[in-house]
Write a structure and sequence with these properties.
alpha+beta; 5-stranded antiparallel sheet; globular
Length: 830
């Protein structure tokens, strides 16, 4: 019996030992193959390829680890290792599916293109977005086929010239969730796939924060599942989470103060950023003693731009804490406008500034803040400081608002509000002179700092720079008044000021539709444009003005806030526009959609001098394009200019653009009396005499009393019919009547001053155009370089003198057949 019990006990021990061994082996296998032993700041294989295979199926792995990973990938997944460079030489080689990139990792966006079917590297490229614009990068992204995968790592600096359009493509076309956060010397690592929806799991970003020279590296290392639509959620971070390196907040005694408030009020302490000695002090927002925004701590993060807390005074808790970089991001500005628009009636909005906030601060955002009670938001200048407490249902001006002026060191002074704010803020009476005085003060400060603006800074300093009200309510909904106006600046900023001043005089002008494009980023140009409340954009310095125009056209097409616009009114450097410019376009802009034979609508007439133009209501069709003020169509940009700016527009504007066959038989609508004038520069320059002669004695409209008539007759078929009818009814000028004119160059035609006549001059064509050139001299018409008449339509020359219409009709034109038999054609005099 005892022996039997021993056998049973021995058998049980053996079974227990076997079970323990099996358990330990299971634990070892699970730890060995499921968990990554790496503890550094890298994504593990499990993070990048969480398997959804049923537990009972065997998980098969590759034979070896690749790209420096600690473990092999599951079969069907691809090893990856990319590290964005936080310095000029700190980036590691990019690796995908065990293959190292062959190109030298360098400044900008380093990109691998991957075949989703086999994981092979198709191509490699680098785009220097610090030293070059985004055009090549955009063309590269546009040229990739649907389904192709990109692996991207930034090095050194990749945001300076990364345009909004490029960010939009990366976001909407490749699935980036965080490209909008890439800032100066920030780092970004990303894997995306063109036109394939995915959850964006393979993306890391580290924005550069203040006092960092470069951001911390962004690293993706592990295993990737392709296509990205089949990728699975990361195990060790929430979907869409951005990993940002943050500095610990410094201790500050009594950070929020010791304000004690009665029931029915909320303790609010808000302070803008400012500079103390050589140290930049961060902004702070505290509510009821709780720090919500302070440096990089609290429940929100302070950052450049608008720092915002939305607070529910009833529940006594924050709803949202956030900052919007309105210095550098149009996207942040749009998001801010949307947030302010959505504020509930009872909620507080507490806002303060850090660093610079006005460069990208849009009119919609400022309008929403005015609705929340701000009366000073429009008066903020470059680097001004500001603190504000508003509420959704205030319907007036908040009593809690301060603006700090810029000190001698170029930074806004500290502004601070520490108040017990009632749960329902009582509005205060509006000071109608507030914005006017603030605007005037900005102008005064600007003129103290810059002394080259002459009359602008010597007269009417107390008159605010505000648009003129629309003088005709029927035009309010006309598309011309919501068409973007693009002002192309040259290097002479006082001349830019004069152009902006003329634009501001247009009745019905919407400031937010005006974009001023300047070279590089300088404080003077920023402050100047802000005085007019126009939008401001920058391009890299161009060696010629034509180059500046090319860059401006490309930038214009990439502006996300105008992405739905089809037409753009382009205004060149040193141009004064007439106050009736938009009234002119209100009657003519629609022609571009109705007649494909039209290339543009211009505001300039080649023959528009005082003796050969006189009727502001009259329009022409002409084969000549002078690009001083004109309409750029998005469709023509996309199809004909995008990659051909040189051939189209590489000549000085007055010499004409889109020459030879580039117009493709299309024409330009132009006014008889120009809606613009050109200011010439002083000193010596190439072709000075010819340029002065071209612009001498020019005539333009000076008020808003006139607008074009019969614009529909500019449509090709209607124009030809009208033209022939006018010639048939015209009074032919006999050869004898022009005898003296052809000899002396002075026209002497007898007419009744009260009448408005149409005259026709039929002439014999000769191979040297001698007759036409003599007639042009006779009528004082401009002849380009003394031998070319350019302002023609189908061989016909048309102009006005003292409200009379004249046609010069050559024997080779189709209109010559309308010559009466008894009229003798004019011939050249020897």
């Amino acid at each position: 019996m005892i022996s039997t019990m021993k056998v049973i006990r021995l058998k049980n021990r053996t079974q227990n030992i076997i079970l323990v061994v099996i358990f330990l082996c299971s634990v070892y296998y699970f730890y060995k193959h499921i968990f990554d032993e790496s503890t550094d700041n890298k994504l593990s294989s499990a993070e990048l390829s969480k398997n959804n295979l049923p537990i009972e199926e065997k998980i098969e792995y590759e034979n070896e680890a690749k790209c420096g990973n600690a473990k092999p990938c599951v079969k069907g997944h691809y090893a990856v290792s990319i590290t964005s460079g936080s310095g000029k030489s700190s980036a590691s080689p990019m690796c995908f599916n065990g293959v190292l990139a062959s190109h030298d990792i360098s400044r900008g966006m380093n990109v691998l293109v991957i075949d989703e079917l086999n994981g092979n590297i198709i191509s490699e490229d680098v785009f220097d977005l610090w030293g070059q614009d985004s055009n090549n990068f955009i063309q590269f992204l546009d040229g990739l086929a649907t389904g192709q995968v990109i692996v991207v790592a930034t090095v050194d600096e990749a945001s300076k010239q990364l345009s909004e359009h490029a960010r939009e493509i990366l976001r909407d076309g490749f699935g980036s969730r965080h490209i909008e956060l890439l800032n100066y010397r920030g780092t970004w690592a990303f894997i995306g796939q063109k036109n394939v929806e995915h959850e964006g799991y393979y993306e890391k970003i580290n924005p550069r924060i203040d006092k960092q020279y470069w951001a911390e590296p962004s690293i993706i290392r592990g295993c990737v599942k392709l296509p990205l639509s089949e990728a699975t959620e990361l195990e060790e971070q929430e979907k869409g989470e951005v990993i940002v390196v943050k500095k610990e907040p410094e201790e500050e005694v009594n950070m929020c103060g010791k304000l004690k408030c009665e029931s029915g009020t909320i303790a609010v302490h808000v302070r803008s950023s400012y500079v103390k000695g050589k140290t930049k002090i961060f902004p702070m927002i505290c509510v009821n003693g709780q720090p919500l925004i302070y440096k990089d701590g609290g429940t929100g993060t302070a950052g450049r731009g608008l720092n915002v807390v939305v607070f529910d005074p009833k529940e006594k808790k924050p709803v949202k804490t956030v900052y919007y970089d309105t210095y550098d991001s149009d996207t942040d500005d749009r998001i801010a406008a949307s947030l302010f628009h959505s504020i509930k009636k009872e909620h507080f909005v507490i806002v303060t500034t850090h660093d610079e906030v006005t460069r990208k601060l849009g009119f919609e955002t400022m309008g929403e803040l005015r609705n929340l009670g701000s009366q000073h938001i429009n008066s903020l200048g470059f680097r001004s400081s500001w603190a504000f407490i508003g509420q959704g249902n205030i319907n007036g001006n908040s009593p809690y608002e301060l603006v700090g002026e810029v000190d001698d060191d170029g930074w806004g002074t500290k502004v601070e509000i520490e108040e017990c704010v009632p749960t329902v803020i009582k509005k205060e009476a509006s000071d109608t002179n507030t914005d006017t005085s603030q605007t005037s003060k900005k102008k005064i400060n600007f003129c103290k700092k810059y002394d080259s603006y002459g009359e602008f800074c010597n007269e009417k300093m107390d008159v605010p720079l505000l648009p003129v009200a629309l003088d005709d309510a029927s035009l309010k909904s006309n598309p011309a008044y919501s068409t973007p106006i693009i002002i192309v600046s040259g290097p002479d900023l006082p001349e830019l000021q004069k152009t902006m001043d003329s634009v501001l005089q247009i009745p019905g002008l919407n400031n937010k539709m005006v974009v001023v494009v300047v070279e590089e980023t300088f404080e003077e140009s920023t402050l100047l444009v802000q005085l007019y409340n126009f939008r401001l954009e920058h391009v890299k310095t161009a060696t010629t003005f034509a180059g500046m125009m090319h860059k401006t056209m490309r930038l214009t097409m990439a502006l996300t806030y105008f992405k739905d616009k089809t037409n753009f009114i382009m205004i060149e450097d040193r141009i004064d526009v007439s106050p009736d410019l938009l009234r002119y376009y209100s009657q003519t802009l629609h022609l571009l959609q109705e007649d494909s034979s039209l290339f543009t609508v211009s505001a300039w007439n080649e023959f528009g001098i005082s003796s050969t133009s006189s009727d502001p209501s009259l329009l022409y069709r002409t084969e000549l394009f002078i690009g001083y003020v004109w309409v750029l169509q998005r469709s023509i940009w996309d199809k004909e200019i995008r990659d051909k700016e040189g051939p189209c527009c590489n000549r000085p504007t007055w010499q004409g653009w889109f020459l030879d066959n580039l117009m493709k038989g299309r024409e330009v609508v132009a006014p008889d009396v120009s809606r613009a004038s050109k200011r010439l520069q002083d000193g010596y320059y190439v072709d000075k005499k010819a340029i002065e002669a071209y612009h001498h004695d020019r005539l333009e409209t000076t008020d808003c009393e006139h607008e074009p008539k019969f614009a529909l007759k500019m449509v090709k078929a209607a124009y030809e019919e009208e033209l022939k009818d006018s010639i048939k009814m015209s009074l032919p000028v006999d050869e004898d009547d022009l005898e003296g004119c052809m000899k002396t160059g002075a026209i002497l035609l007898e007419k009744d001053d009260e009448s408005k006549n149409v005259y026709s001059v039929f002439y014999e064509y000769d191979s040297k155009d001698s007759t036409l050139l003599q007639l042009c001299k006779c009528f004082n018409l401009y002849v380009h370089k003394g031998n070319t008449v350019r302002n023609i339509h189908n061989g016909l020359v048309r102009f006005t003198m003292d409200m009379d219409i004249y046609f010069l009709i050559g024997s080779k034109t189709e209109y010559y057949e309308l010559k009466p038999n008894n009229v003798v054609a004019v011939k050249a005099r020897s």
